[in-house]
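To fix ideas, we quote verbatim one protein's residues and fold tokens.
>
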Amino acid sequence: MRHDRLPDGFGVRIDPRVRAYSGGRFLVGGSPTRLLRLAPEAAALIGDGYLEVTDTESAVVARRLLDSGVGNPRPRLLPALDDVTVVVPLHNDGAGLHRLLATLRGHSVVVVDDGSDRPVRIPDSRGRCRVTVLRHDRRKGAAAARNAGLRAATTEFVAFLDSDMVPRAGWLEVMLGHFSDPQVALVAPRIVPREPDAGVLGRYDRTRFSLDHGRREAAVTPDGAVPYVPGAALLVRRRALLAEGGFDEAMRSAADVDLCWRLERSGWRLRYEPAAQVSGDHPVSLREWLRRKVSQGAGVAPLARRHGGMVAPLAVPLWLVVATALLASLSRWGLIGGVITVVTALIRLRRAFAELDNPTRVAAIQTARGCGAGLWRLVSASCRHYWPITALAMVFSRRIRRTAVTLAVADGLADWFTHRDVGGLDPVRYLACKRLDDLAYGTGLWWGAVRARKVSALRSAAPPL
């Protein structure tokens, strides 16, 4: 674990979703939710929710806020843009490369031609950027192409951009600031659809784009709101990746997820910065769209072999699973048992919050939120990750069949309501796309687990209360 001190001037802003109690000495929030206890002196440093590092004491408090997930970094120092090399892995996408190079001005670019049918031709950039081309005679995969570019670079930082990506103005400057924290190894921008297609799939992808992690900044941690970031657009500290051996070239999919988790395990910090944006292409044909969804699901099994329970598709507290099963029985003893289970969880949580001003109220709020979020995940998982089990149960039980259909419709409509102002799809077509999305991903998940003989890819995880 590294203990590099945060520099003076580095700021930390408390996340707006975090709640402070007892004069700021207790903070409840983060992802997953936790209780952070602060000494009175540390709480006084935060003031109105912002802490600036000025000495060793404030640096320690700032690090604790960042590592607990209740604070977000506000760096002031900015490394020079000359310290960045852009690496572009390429395979048969000359048009995309030309479009990308037109947006890169003044950068050093390494294009890795990964066995294209025809050797790549670099257009005249008229001094906009300096381009070096490396070529693989046969296709080795995106991981190998990125590693080749990483080794060829000599700058302190390396930006990976796939050829179908188009960065927006200021993307590098926003991310570079995070590296003023010496423990940050990787920063990822938000990836949004580029010029969304006017068809149904294109409009659906505006709301459910698989590469988009949303509008909220976050630390990238396996158990957090952003568990990983895609390798299609990354900014990394070169020495950190070289120390980890770069991307695993043996993994044909999910090598980016594997890299994130290896870096995190080694003690590095990773950040997701949505203020930096990159737009990317999305498949427009139904066949290619479904193929990508299946491929994403199939990539879970190789991760399970290396990272075990970190890839669990369903993370809900055990007490909630038990309570849901008991309440769903609709029997007298089932209802009583379900209520007892929830009350027991509430009592345990109250003990954890015993030092707060009103522990019962806080525990009740957190229990209610946990129930709501957990039930949503259970319903979603029954339609997505575990739909083969749900479908099999529907064959043998009319009650389950009715319940499953109701939940599938409710889940899709609730998701549409949340994103109704983004894609512009009516609820019927959105629901159809959502169910196809889940069926394709779930098919890939089970196919990959069976092929790899890795049941842990299907196992659920039980996080702490």
